[in-house]
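Z., the sequence and structure:
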Amino acid sequence: MGMDMPRAPLDPSQIAATLSHYWRVSVVDLTTSTQEDLAEKINSGDAHSGDVIVANFQSAGRGRLDRTFSAPASTALLFSLYLTPQKSRTEWGFLPLLAGISIAETLNKVNAGISIKWPNDLLINEKKVGGIISTVHGEGVIIGIGINVSMSAQELPLESATSLGLAGVSNLDRNLLLSMILNSLESDFSHWDLGESFLDRYLDLSATILSDVRIELPGGREILATAISIDEQGRLNLDDGQVVSVGDVIHLR
């Protein structure tokens, strides 16, 4: 499906045909936010680990630090999923990084060339193609994911963004890409929840580790340092000894 082909809405039957039985995917045409929809489902007591809501269009999607995230209808993968880990809550901070690993490795199988900017920006040649946000809710974690699939250059919100299509990925079938990502994440989540470390796999994909960075912290404070590692809680470790759990990273040339 090339970028010049019609942008078909998601097809639940096509998604289910290649999807693991772990996931229960609900497709909606229009919503304000899949994260909010999933939170309401959890609040009503009707949610279980493995529930997924995916939308053709979000009118009020959001990213990290309450930034807005928007895309024309059927040009992006916009979905949220619910996981209830057995591991200690002190380690749940690694979950968005785990999702980043699953997504990047999956999309790199279709030659996307994705790397990860800590904590959860998906990059192609230093341009953002997607992002991940996570929030603890109920007895688990909601992970919200947005990936620019077939957006043209004119449709991108920023010059620093890109899409899979613009990066030369030929298979832009959102049904297949969603199933591939979820199947990979199921396997990775199961192994992580049983104690397997994913640090090496994250480091292999990281565009941040060993880079000089400026980190903008909540409240306006900034840090200039070299990123040297991450830990099992998903925190960024700096060469000056500081450990950062939340912040906006700018890679310095």
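The radius of gyration is 17 Å. Residues 4 and 241 are 50 Å apart (CA to CA).

Let me know what you think.
H.
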